[in-house]
Structures are given as structure tokens and as C-alpha cells.
Amino acid sequence: MALAYVLLGAGFGLVNPPITSTAASSMPADQAGVASAVAATARQFGSALGVAVLGALLAVGLDPSADSHSLSTATHLPWAFLCLVGLAVTTVAGLATK
After folding, report:
1. How far is CA 33 from CA 3, 24, 25, 29, in A?
2. Do 58 and 74 meet the contact criterion of CB atoms below 8 Å apart?
3. What is the mean pLDDT of residues 69-98?
4. pLDDT score for 72
5. Vertex 9, ends 6 and 14: CA angle to 5°?
6. Tell me, what's the pLDDT at 67?
7. Model confidence over 19-43: pLDDT tens digits?
8. Distance between CA 79 and CA 9 in Å, rounded?
9. What is the DSSP letter of 97?
10. What are phi and psi of 36, to 5 degrees?
11. Cα angle at 95 between 93 and 98, to 5 degrees?
12. For residues 36 and 9, what is the distance between their CA atoms, to the nearest angstrom?
């Protein structure tokens, strides 16, 4: 779990500054603050949506009648989905910067 959280934190740390920089630099100087605010709002919305989707995927995998090991098994689908989305974002970012 610790490795997964380190990778997730590193991913957020590597993605957020370029997104904010791109949003701010693509607008006229007098609207850079608005662009930064829109990027921050989109980031917050995406985070909230991600928590909701991953929570729903976790709930799908949970079996209330099972033992305590069901939680660790139920996390497989959300982690697989998160990895797939991360791969998609990395691919799009790689294609967009060429």
C-alpha cells in the first residue's frame, strides 16, 4: 500500500504543476488568475469525482457477509481502474506534448 500511495502522490506532484502552468500561460496576462482558478476548480472536481467512482467500485466488490479479507480483495477493481486511468492520462499527455 505504501508504494501505491507514493506512486499516486508522485503522479499528482508531476501532473499538477504543468497543468496549472499551461492553463495560466495560455491566457492573456490579465486573465492568468482566472485560468489558474479554472484549472484548480477542475482539479478539485476531478478529485471529488474520482473518490466517488473509486468508492462505488469498492462498494461493488464488498461482500457484507464475508470475513475481514473481503476489503483487501474488493480493492483490486478500484486499483486496476486507477492504473488504467493513469495510463490513459500518461498516453494523452505524451501525445499532446509531441
Report:
1. 35, 7, 10, 8
2. yes
3. 85
4. 81
5. 120
6. 65
7. 788 877 888 888 888 888 888 898 8
8. 14
9. T
10. -65, -40
11. 105
12. 21
How far is the CA of 60 from the CAs of 54, 65, 81, in angstroms?
Answer: 10, 13, 13
pLDDT number for residue 53 = 94
Residue type, 31: Q
Q: DSSP string covering 5-60, please?
A: HHHHHHHHHHHHHHHHHHHHHTS-GGGHHHHHHHHHHHHHHHHHHHHHHHHHHHHH
Nearest CA among 54, 49, 91, 46 for reference residue 76: 54
Distance in angstroms (rounded) separating the CA atoms of residues 25 and 85: 26
pTM assigned to the model: 0.68
Q: Which pLDDT does position 27 carry in this prediction?
A: 82
Q: How far apart are CA 68 and CA 62, in angstroms?
A: 10
Give the Cα separation of 78 and 82 in Å (integer). 6
